[in-house]
Amino acid sequence: MKILVAVKRVIDYNVKVRVKADNTDVDLTNVKMAINPFCEIAVEEAVRLKEKGVATEIVAVSIGPKECQEQIRTALALGADRGIQIQTDGAPLGSLSVAKLLKAVVDEEKPDLVLLGKQAIDSDNGQTGQMLAALTGMGQGTYASEVNVDNGKVNVTREVDGGLQTLSLSLPAVVTTDLRLNEPRYASLPNIMKAKRKPLDVKTPEDLGVTVSSTVETLKVEPPAERQAGIKVASVDELVEKLKNEAKVI
Amino acid sequence: MTILVVADHDNVTLGAGTLNTVSAAADIGGDIHLLVAGANCGAVAEQAANVAGVVKVLVADNAAFEHHLAENVSLLVAELGKNYSHVLSSTSTDARNMMPRVAALLDVDQVSDVIKVESADTFARPIYAGNAIATVKSSAAVKVITVRGTGFDPAAAEGGSATIEAIAADNNAGVSSFVSEELAQSDRPELAAAEIIVSGGRGMGNGENFELLYKVADKLGAAVGASRAAVDAGYVPNDMQVGQTGKIVAPNLYVAVGISGAIQHLAGMKDSKVIVAINKDEEAPIFQVADYGLVADLFEAVPELEGKL
Ligand SMILES: Cc1cc2nc3c(=O)[nH]c(=O)nc-3n(C[C@H](O)[C@H](O)[C@H](O)COP(=O)(O)OP(=O)(O)OC[C@H]3O[C@@H](n4cnc5c(N)ncnc54)[C@H](O)[C@@H]3O)c2cc1C
Ligand SMILES: Nc1ncnc2c1ncn2[C@@H]1O[C@H](COP(=O)(O)O)[C@@H](O)[C@H]1O
Known about the structure:
Chain A has helices at 37-51, 69-78, 95-109, 128-136, 189-195, 236-246, and strands spanning 2-6, 9-11, 33-35, 57-64, 82-87, 113-117, 139-150, 153-160, 163-170, 173-177, 200-203, 216-222, 231-233.
């Protein structure tokens, strides 16, 4: 079984972003970048499926400028077998364009399972996996906390509002990862070295016959409203008094 | 301009987030139709017809829609959606699961998590865990949008008198099926709808200690939430997680107990009206957003608080 994993290069989750003074975007100059945490969980799941003998090959794909090869290398160091970078420059693509490019890769690679993160922590879109599933006609298991491949099907347990739900999907299928699916390993130094020699193909949207465009334009990006600084209370009594008489919320 | 709102429901009760979504639709302007897709969901259709501002309720009652499988429901919504200017839903997991499929089937981009309607084509939404607010303009023929409930007051559940129209649909993509579900049982209010939320973090130490918070919550009629660390550690189930990648809440009062205040947690609760933090570390970042901070050991402060309510 072949697995395709989509990994996105995003701001490191520990960094607090700032909005640019001209309100056109957030400021990403000299900011630490990393693999989107949910994508890291997706790579880990693929590697575990390979270790269990369920998967035979893992292909990691990332869409973006040349720098996103770093995140593909991270995936290769974690255990993916080869990488594909789809080179795009300029403004980051919307989820629909990303999904169309991934569909073109799916058409070429014919994976049995496509793993993505449930959301990218920069755009906070949470759309790409579902869009890819729609474009390819595949079933989808989003917000996965457990994935079991068995007999041409995949059973996915999903974190939903009320608790957990399990679905059965025909393969090929799309699965998007949630936080509890697994705990990603760290790449060892020898594996990081080995990853440098693994194959990494570079393609363009034209190679894949996809025209990227967007129906959504960003007009401005602003910082959120700041909260007024609060006070420290000295005791539980004072807290209860303030909540009753000042804030009037209890 | 006519707007289609896809209702949230469990085949029995209309989901609370739908009322906030109807308000967002009203801000856009135009007639509002509500779609109830489910199985044996007549009761939901009745409730939907009573929502103030809704002119028509479409009911697709078929076994194919019983568990809201995205593959099936999206086919129906995309088919209907072609005839609307906007298709809206809440940000429930059902809606977030299904709507991007609709957008892809209609070949349009989706605008997720809208918190403000500027005009019929311009919307504000948080990005980067709420550390920035983007204003975006959509030129899509059909605007597919999910609405974050905390951005909009709920529409009145009563007072409307929409017509109810049954639609014959049995869209079945045939690629997915429901196996089982394990839903949390609780008599406390739901996080999304609660006026007061008491949340616990890693500082709670274990699941049993959450009893301390349940007691406080029961005195206040509050819901109980948690940080990711508390969920990951197995203290409480996943549906209690508040944050960037969990539930987004904005109650009148949010009490954070033994929670440090990571960016990802703040993203889910910093729009609460009043925030209280109880933490033994006076440097904890949660105090930067708290209206009232109490530096104390929670194992002393929380039982004392419960006694004094
Ligand atoms: C991709 C991604 C998504 C994430 N999504 C979310 C999300 O949606 N929601 C979320 O919450 N987190 C999320 N996180 C995790 C987040 O970064 C933090 O790790 C998490 O919020 C920490 O939880 P915590 O505050 O309970 O634990 P800690 O940071 O460990 O804090 C525990 C606090 O308890 C205090 N404490 C300990 N004992 C006591 C005591 N006896 N009395 C009083 N205080 C005490 C300590 O002083 C400390 O401040 C996400 C992370 C990533 C990478
Ligand atoms: N530029 C990209 N390159 C590769 N994968 C992506 C890209 N953008 C999004 N994805 C995938 O889609 C998931 C969800 O992203 P989003 O829908 O943007 O929140 C991510 O976790 C990735 O797995």
